[in-house]
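A reminder before we start the practical. When you read a complex entry, don't treat the lines as separate problems. The point of joint prediction is that each chain is placed relative to the others, so the output describes one connected object in space. Small molecules and nucleic acid strands, if listed, are placed in the same frame. In the example below there are two entries. Take a minute to note the order of the lines before looking further.
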Amino acid sequence: MIIQAKNQAIEAHNLTVIYNKKPVLWNIDFTLPLGEITGIMGPNGAGKSTLIKAILGLVALDSGYARVFDKKLDEVRDKVAYIPQRQSIDWDFPATVRDVVTMGRFQSKGLFKRMGNEDRRIIDEALSQVGMSSYAGRQISQLSGGQQQRVFLARALAQQAELYLLDEPFAGVDASTEQSIMDLLVRMKRAGKTVVVVHHDLQTARHYFDWLVLLNTSLVASGPSEQVFTDELLRSTYSGKLTVLSRVGDQLRDRNFPVRENGK
Amino acid sequence: MASDYTAFFLLQDPNVRLVLAGTILIGIIAAITGCFTFLRKRALAGDAISHSVLPGVCLAFLFYGEKNPLVLMSGAIASGLLSLVLMEAVTRARLARPDTAIALMLSVFFGAGIVLLTAIQHQGNAAQAGLDKFLLGKAASITREDLQLIGLSACIIVGLIAVFFRGFYLISFDEDFAFSIGFRVKFLQFLLSVITVWTIAIGIQSTGVVLMAALLVTPALSARMWTDSVVRMVFIAGFFGALSGYVGAFISYTAPALPTGPWIVVSATLLAGISLAFAPGKGLVSRWAVHQKNRRKSTDENILKLFYQLIEKSGGAQHGLLEEDLINQRSFNLQTLRTGLKRLIRKGLVVQLAGVYSLSEAGMSAATRVVRLHRLWELYLQRYLHLEPDHVHDDAEAIEHVITPEIEQMLAEELGYPDKDPHQTNIPPETL
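Here is the predicted structure of the whole assembly.
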């Protein structure tokens, strides 16, 4: 079931991404609504993180394109904030909480401009929104998982973007932090922001998200949560890979065929 | 010999000034550049690149016919970059994993360099004399021309790092994020690579291709021990690099027969050793001191607890204890017990009169607290982790020493202010 959003924040057209000769995303085609919280769900290895990276241009596309706010991403980069998986970076890096949040201002400042009072005010505000003000001077190596996640969130807030893409923000986070992050996302939505979250907990998905994308290499469903969150659709997302699709993928890899006839 | 030292330290000899300026400059820029090599976890790649500049130096000499610093440096940079490009190409094409690609380039390029070097030496061209100094470095061979090139390169490199600092800093921390906010990650990576290769190329004269990687990474490692800020790290590393360069020049001056590279690296390593040992907080001594402090705290609290238990057992009748009473009860060794008692007396928690030990009022309340924490924790383990009563003791022995008053409060509240532990002994109430 694929329902098109009325006001579109993101449009993915025919996205295909191949890692090591095997499709990780196959012909993904959907639209996500503006000003809502969207959850991207699917089993491990379904390509959820890759989908976000594909939208951001972090991975090479083997076919298709993605548009954000009806423009090419490069034209609207300053309106998009990306929150990578917490485990993707080295938390022993010599930096304080404040240093990391300051990186959120690098976008508007570019490589060379100095931080001003306005930037400092935005950074303070971001820290206080995630409840990390009293940790500003702390080394990031000394933070708990939940605190690390909140620091990443504060960095995104400091970007003052319109669209927020979060990759597994609730992984390895305690229940109370999860709740406070969720509250913050709802506040952001009320302020008119669009939020997209990669998530894997089915229990909470239904009441966290307005819109749901079910993914398992190919797109299973995209639409308002209440229509997409059905036993049947969930089963077809989670009951293993679509067998034929995955067999064809194996063939492509083993025989070294491109997915597109004129592709690499 | 003594006059050698004075001549060196007083900088009377213009040649000393020259060599010193060269090695110190090289030490500084290698250390500053090396901070990013270190932070990006590219130390091994740095080593491979530094070995890989050798064939470039040799080829440049072969084509040019004499040892012109600029020509040799260009050759070094070209072959260093080539090895880097090949390393990445081999990895990207999935022909080999990154570690294999690094090892491969290191040995292939260095091998080729040695072959060329040997060939040049057998040519009988007098101009080649000293080319072998690029292997292990010889600071004393730095000429005025060399120094000009080193100085100019140093200015440009430090300038580039200062200007692009934010970019280099961000790609060292989080490349994906840097890309997502529109930084030109590929360009920044390339620029940083060029700077690294360039640094190596000007450093090989004093340090040599074999050991240059150590001069890149060792000062960064040392600096990392002293600070948690990248900016301060860069400055501290630069200082350590300068110091190592100074030592190198000194050795080269007083013992001209020795290659300088090993000495520069030995002094850099010595500084790293000092940093690893003595840096506050992260250093070994500091960690050892914390460990000792914790052990003392455990011992003291265990002795206090013992007092409490013995008093409890006697129904409150017995207050004064002899050393034998204490040693019989617990597996203290006598020495630990005695130093522990002495410490407790000094703190005013234990009083000693004619060989009889007893708790002071403050001692009694400290002892009560330890026992209380022990028993609260036992109860917590039994209720929430569902451990059997005979399994909770050992864990509580350790945990009782780390529970803070705030956690104590939470624990008591969570357990509903209990008065019996899993062994049905009393949990003493909170003391004030």
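Discuss with your neighbour: The radius of gyration of chain A is 19 Å. What might explain this?
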